[in-house]
């Protein structure tokens, strides 16, 4: 298994949203929802087996999440298929970011990691632009 090698092209995109009603800033808890789209743009069918997330608050706190599948599922994506799901996380600061990877396996038994590009989590208005 080579880290940068993908026998089929898996593309991951993420959209985020601050969840004010689930946050308690006075306790250093900022909740963010994220919607993930996983698209198989390659020629082979692949099944998602595992996830690995790195979650960073801007105060330096790092969390890692590893586990089987996503939201209790291990979706199998044929060429051209898309899988969508939503989840959420809590940061200690109003800003931070996430990134990660998904482990897939092809029908031929070849395993590979598909990257989840870094994405940012921000409470609206929390960053001052210069």
Give the topology, please.
Elements: E1 10-18, E2 30-40, E3 46-57, E4 62-68, E5 76-77, E6 82-91, E7 95-106, E8 111-122
Antiparallel strand pairs: 1-2, 2-6, 3-4, 3-5, 3-7, 7-8
Cα distance spanning the termini: 44 Å
Q: How would you spell out the order of helices and strands? A: EEEEEEEE
Low-confidence stretches are: none
Q: Please identify the structural class as seen in this structure.
A: mainly beta
Query: Which percent bin holds the helix content?
Result: under 10%
Q: Class in CATH?
A: Mainly Beta
- Rg over alpha carbons: 16 Å
User: What is the CATH topology?
Assistant: Immunoglobulin-like
Helix count, DSSP H or I runs of 4 or more residues: 0
Mean pLDDT: 94
Shape call: elongated
Strand coverage percent: over 45%
CATH architecture grouping: Sandwich
Integer count of domains: 1
Brief synopsis:
The protein is mostly beta strands and 130 residues long. The chain has strands at residues 10-18, 30-40, 46-57, 62-68, 76-77, 82-91, 95-106, 111-122.
Task: Describe the overall structure.
This protein is mostly beta strands and 130 residues long. It has one domain: Immunoglobulin-like (Sandwich), CATH 2.60.40. Helices cover 0% and strands 58% of the residues. It is built from no helices and eight strands. It has strands at residues 10-18, 30-40, 46-57, 62-68, 76-77, 82-91, 95-106, 111-122. Strands 3, 4, 5, 7 and 8 form a five-stranded antiparallel β-sheet that branches. The relative contact order is 0.29.
């Amino acid at each position: 298994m080579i880290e940068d090698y993908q026998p089929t092209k898996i593309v991951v995109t993420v959209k985020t949203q601050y969840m004010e009603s689930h946050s308690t800033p006075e306790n250093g808890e900022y909740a963010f929802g994220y919607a993930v789209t996983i698209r198989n743009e390659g020629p082979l069918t692949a099944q998602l087996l595992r996830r690995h997330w790195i979650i960073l608050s801007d105060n330096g706190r790092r969390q890692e999440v590893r586990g089987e599948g996503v939201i209790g599922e291990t979706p199998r994506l044929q060429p051209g298929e898309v899988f969508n799901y939503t989840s959420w996380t809590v940061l200690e600061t109003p800003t931070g970011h996430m990134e990660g990877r998904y482990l897939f396996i092809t029908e031929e038994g070849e395993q590979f990691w598909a990257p989840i590009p870094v994405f940012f989590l921000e409470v609206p208005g929390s960053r001052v632009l210069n």
